[in-house]
Amino acid sequence: MDKEYFQTLAKQLMFHISEEEAEQLQEEFVILQKQIALLERIDTENVKEMVYPFEAETAFLREDEITHTISREAALSNAQAVMAGHVHVPKVVK
Amino acid sequence: MDIKTMKMQDVKTRVYDAIEKAKQLQPKLNAVVTFVDVEEQLEALKQIPSDAPLYGIPVVLKDNVNTKGILTTASSRILSNYIPVYDAAICEKLKANGAIIIAKASMDELGMGGTNLSAYSGPVHNPYDTTRISGGSSGGSAVLCAAGVAPLTIGTDTGDSIRKPAAYNGVIGVKPTYGRISRYGIIPYASSLDHVGYFTTTVADAAAALHVLAGRDDRDMTTGNEPVPAYESLINDDIHGKRIAVIDNIIEAVKEEAIVQSFESLLTKLEERGAVIEHVRLNDELLSVLLPTYFIIANAEATANHSNLDGIRFGVREAGESVEEVMINSRTKGFSSNIRKRFVIGSYSLFVENQDKLFRKAQKVRRLIVNEVKAVLDQYDMILTTAAPTIAPHPEDSVDEALSDTYLIAENHMIIGNFTGYPCMTMPCGFVSDMPIGIHMMAKPYCEQELFNIGSAIEAETGLKGITAEVKA
Description:
The structure holds two protein chains of two kinds. Chain A is mostly helical.
C-alpha cells in the first residue's frame, strides 16, 4: 500500500495526514499484516462474533415518550458559530 | 487518606485542603486539567443527609466524564472548549450521595493510550518518582488518589486503563462488571469494551464506592438489572476454601524477578490463610493474539464513535471555505497524529472487503478468549496474576497500546477483563526499587464482592491499606 492510499483513506475520514504520517502508517501496516496472519491461524469456524459479553438481555424498546430533552439555547451553546437560532456554517449553495 | 478517616474532619476543611493539595502538587504532577468551583456544590450539600456515604468527600473525575457547565476536554484539542449541558449518570449519583467534585483529571487523548503522555495538557507524572510515567489512560485520576488528594477518583477502562495506572501508582483500581456502572454521559472510546471504574486506597472504600455508583440506568441500555448489594458491610476476609487460579503462562511472561517473587510470596500467605491456590494455563495461541484482537476491535469502534467530532456543533472549529473543509481542518488540527493514524487503521478494518478478515475475525477470537477464561472461572472463585510486569517506566521506555512487533502477554493480559466484561481489581502488593507493584484479580460476572473479600485478606497481608505517596521534587 502506497502513501497515497493512506492519504485517500484519511480524507474519507475527514482529516489529512502528512507524508511522514503516511510513511509511519506504511510501517505499522507491515506489523498489522503479521498480526492478521496470527489471527488467521486461529480456527474460528462456527464461532459467532462477540459484540456483548453476556447472554442476559438488557435492552428493550421504550415507550415513544419525550424524555431528557435540552433547550435550543443549550443545544447551540457549544457551537462556535450561531445565527438566527441555528448552527452557522459556510454557504453550501453559492 | 481513606473516606472514614477523612470524615473525621469537617466538610469545608477536607474539601478545601484537598483542593489546596492538588494545586500545590500541580507543578510536579500535572494531573489536573480543570479545578472545579465547589461553592455551589457545598451549598447543595445542605439538602443531602449528613449520613450519606460520600457526604462532603472530595472526588476527582476523569476528564471524559460530562459535567454540566464544567469544561470537559477528554484531553483532546478538539474538545478543549467543550462545556457539557448535562451531567453524566455517575455525577448525579456522586452528588446525590454527598460527593464534592473538586477537579477534572488528565487522561490519554480520548482514552486512546496507556501512558498518559498523549494528553493535550501534557504528560502526567508518577507521584513516587516524577521522572516516571503515571500510566494511562486514567493517569490523572490514579495519581491524584495515590498522592492523597482525594480518597475516590473516577476513571474509565477500555483496555486496562484503570488497572495499569493503579499498579504503577500503588492504589486500588476497580473495573467492575461490564454494565455494572452506567456509561451515560461518558465520552466513549470503544463501546463494547468501555467500563467506568475508580481508584481508592482501601478495599473498604472500593466496596463503598461501588455501592454508590452501580445500578441499572435506562439511559445506558447495557447496564445490568442485578441488584446492588451493600458491598462494604458484607466484606468477609475469611478465605478458607476459596479456590484461586494462577495463570502460569502469564506469570512466566513477567521478566522482572522481584515482581514474581513478591507475587509468589503473597500466594504462600494466602495458602496459609486457607485459600486453595492452583496453577492453570490458558491457550498460548490465544494469549499471543490478545493485542491484535484488542487493537482491531478498539480502533474500529473508536473510529465510528468519534465521527461526531467535527467542530460544527461543538468542539474547536477551524475555518474553511465549505462545510467539508471546516470539518477536515477541525479534525486534522483537533486530533493528534497518533489518534488520526489509529482512526485510519480502525476504518481500514471496517471496509466491506476487510470486515470478515479483520473486524469480524477479531470479534470471533474475542469469543474464544472469553470461553477460555470462563472455563477457568467455572472451576475457581478468582483468577489471580501480577498486574503490570514492571514498575512504572520512564517515558522513553514506555510501551503504549500501539502496534508492536512483540506480543507482550505480560504487558497486555489485563485486557482480557475488557473482552470478558468480568469484574477485576488491581491492588498494591509491595515495592520494587521504591516503586509500587500490584496484583490483578478477576472474578465471575457481578461477583465484585469476591474481589473485595479476598482483596481484604490481601490488604491485611501486605499492610498497604490506605498508603499514599509523598511527592518529592
